[in-house]
Amino acid sequence: MTVSGERPDPPASALPRHDPESGLDWMLDRLGTALWIFDIDEGRVVWANAAALETWSADSAAELQARSMKDSMSPAVMRRLRQYQEDFVRSGATFSELWTLYPRGVPRPMRVRFSGVALAGGRVGMLCEGREETGMEPEARRSADALLHTQLMISLHREDGRTLYLNPAARSAYEGRQDELGARFLEPGDHALLMQGVRLRGETRLVARVHAAAGPRWHELTARTCLDPASGDPSILVSAADVSSLKQAEARAQDIARHDPLTGLPNRLMLPVLFERLGRQARSSGSALGVLFIDLDQFKTINDTLGHVHGDAVLLEVSRQLAAMRGPDDAVLRLGGDEFLFLAMEAPDRPGFEALAAEMIARLSIPAAGGERRLVVTPSIGVARFPEHGEDAQTLLRCADWAMYEAKTRGRNQYQPFQEHIRARMERQLELMVDLGQALALDQFTVHYQPRRSVAEGRTVAVEALARWRHPVRGMVPAADFIPLCEKSGLIDSLGSFVLDHALRCRAGWQAAGLDVAVSVNVSLHQLSDPRFGTMLGDLLQAHGCRGECLELELTETLLMDENPVIHRNLADARALGVRIAVDDFGTGYSNLARLSETAIDCIKIDRSLMLGLPRNSAIVETVIAMCRLMRVSIVAEGVETAELADWAGGHGCHELQGFHCGRPMDADAMEAFLRQERAASPAPAA
User: Fold this and answer.
1) Computed from CA positions of residues 338, 343, 344, 346, in that sequence, does the dihedral angle turn out positive or negative?
2) Is residue 686 predicted with pLDDT exceeding 80?
């Protein structure tokens, strides 16, 4: 659609008046130009000359006046007519545009000049002067009609930004800010960016907030250089689409992505935003900012034994308790799983960060019960300080995380302020983690064996396989340092398979040499959670020619309590192969005796910490031994370092002893020599 020939006319009060009784109709009927007056409010033609009757395919003026065009009028056409009406009243403007009329449903392209005319009752209609565009191509007609009806806002501007043309959609959208391109932008910088792009590249695209008749909106604008079809002067053509709904949907999606669906708390993605705000506030006030990393102890046990419904209830209660402790300038996040983060702003009227952590210990000791099972969740908390321990979110999060793990290693259910020695140890662990990735491939792992002596026979009847890491720089790395790292990194499966294969190969060699001992191998949660574990175990036994009875698998109490059906299916497969099952480190964790009695257990190993506490805790150890007797299992006392402990354990019913008194861990060759020497000194008892 093209506007041309705009000129100022007299105000609405001075418009020529339509008077049906004026007696000029005969004169106007003789004109070849179609003339008609259209009542915009009513949507009807109120007067037409003969040429207009022919244009509208009307039999008479009365018949044309009786037609109601309002019902079939599109919203875009109605908006455009209202814009005409406003311009007629405001400035007496005239317009010349290409329109397609539809008399009796037949399209008829017309070049129409519109001007205002006063109607009865003070209303404003328009005088229409039409000439038929007979030679116009269909494509041009469709283009003009699309420009009228499209919701795309199209405007033409001079190089200085002054407006030359607005299509109906642009007129409606930018009402009150139509005269100049820059007036529509909320941010002047966006207008400058648009103009810069046009000058440098001739075309640019931008999404910006704009002033619109409906209020602030998001528009996607495309601007390109062109020539004004009327003057030939350099101009800028701008098309704009309203993308506010899309931006709102993006904002909602971002909000959902940045908040935990269960608790409604901000999640890890919100940490940079929240830390930036609180860090800026702390810097400006000279205050410290506390970063408290909270991890729930034994939370997995809740999910595994009571179910995820109870686990979710615990998480909701933790979030409520933390929210209740939150000050006006604090933030609480759920990082994922059972991990939470509390950002606390230092203030003169509140306790220090360590006192806050102590309060959390009390508040977050939350009981969970299901049926006859009752458990208590406790927190381990690490505390770091801004700016003392770091000035960015990731550094402080890492320090608080390290301090939290220190709290766990010290027994859980406590808080630990970050200290530099923790950083040094954790950085060493990170270095070890990197080295671990290549250790197995570079053949740096080996297996040592520690003897288990039978109290009745007085000689070694079994050996425990223990992984050892010969680091090329650090030397022999303690298992306590690298086993947890293997579990974190996922290498525990590969290492466990290596140890199991090594132990069965050695056992087969010892058997061939006439040294009949069983081998005991620790297995992890990761290994037993693999559906292929039972098959792999059977293949290894067959490959090395070993009977199942010569192998014992050591599990922790926690692993045995796991509800994962894959674990229990693998244990059943192992039992079917004749493999013995032992519970390691018994007496230090959560002991469900009913569950233990339901599981086929062959051996229980009393934790070395209990044995080393003798004779001070003799009553406790005696109780543990009595429990083992009730389950009718073999009892192994670990940590037997002295002859006195050996005598005590043997005298109180332990069947086997393991510890430095019986023999230190040694490599396979040394173990074979040890067994030969022992057998020579103490032959096997007669059958």
Assistant:
1) positive
2) no
Phi/psi at 162 (nearest 5 deg)?
Answer: -65, 140
Pairing of strands 124-132, 34-39: antiparallel
In this predicted structure, the answer to whether residue 515 has a pLDDT above a threshold of 60 is yes
Is residue 113 classed exposed, middle or buried when 0-12, 13-18 and 19+ CB atoms within 10 A define those classes? middle
- What is the dihedral sign for C-alpha 11, 12, 18, 23? negative
Task: Say how many C-beta atoms besides its own lie within 10 A of residue 86's C-beta.
Answer: 14
369-to-296, 372, 519 alpha-carbon distances in Å: 16, 7, 40
Q: Any idea which of 48-57, 153-162, 549-558, 676-685 has the lowest mean pLDDT?
A: 676-685
Residue among 294, 291, 292, 293 at smallest CA distance from 387: 291
Angle value at C-alpha 231, between 230 and 235, nearest 5 degrees: 95
Which of the four pLDDT bands, split at 50, 70 and 90, describes residue 8? very low
Q: How far apart are CA 97 and CA 112, in angstroms?
A: 6
Other C-beta atoms closer than 10 Å to the C-beta of 387 total: 13
How many residues are given for the chain? Answer: 687
Summarize the confidence of residues 108-122 as an average pLDDT.
88
513 in helix, strand or coil? coil
Distance CA 130, CA 117 (A): 16
The residue whose two tokens read 């543990």 is 624
Q: Concatenated DSSP letters for 610-676?
A: HHHTTTTTHHHHHHHHHHHHHHT-EEEE----SHHHHHHHHHTT-SEEESTTT---EEHHHHHHHHH
DSSP 115: E
The total of other beta-carbon atoms located within 10 Å of residue 244's CB is 16
Per-residue pLDDT band at 480 (split at 50, 70, 90): confident
Give residue 475's region: left, alpha or beta (phi > 0; psi -120 to 50). Answer: left
- Helix (DSSP H) and strand (DSSP E) numbers for the chain: 25, 26
**Which pairing describes strands 580-586 and 551-556: parallel, antiparallel, or unpaired?**
parallel
List, edge to edge, every strand of the sheet that includes 153-158.
Answer: 163-166, 153-158, 234-242, 217-227, 203-210
- Two tokens at 3? 């506007």
Please classify residue 248 by burial: count the beta carbons closer than 10 Å to its beta carbon, then call 0-12 exposed, 13-18 middle and 19+ buried: exposed
Residues β-bridged to residue 26: none
**Residue holding tokens 């499209």?**
150
Burial call 504-539: b when 16+ CB within 10 Å, e when fewer: bbbbbebbeeebebbbbbbbbbbbbebeebbeebbe
User: Which H or E run includes 296?
Assistant: strand 289-297
Indicate the pLDDT class of residue 410, thresholds 50, 70 and 90.
confident
Cα 391 to Cα 291: distance, rounded to the nearest angstrom = 11
pLDDT digits (tens, 9 = 90+) for 141-160: 676 666 666 778 899 999 99
Q: What is the Cα gyration radius of the chain?
A: 44
How would DSSP label each residue in 129-151? Answer: EEEE-TT--HHHHHHHHHHHH-S
605 in Cβ contact with 638 (< 8 Å)? yes
44-48 and 475-477 beta bridge pairing: unpaired
CB 210 within 8 A of CB 216: yes
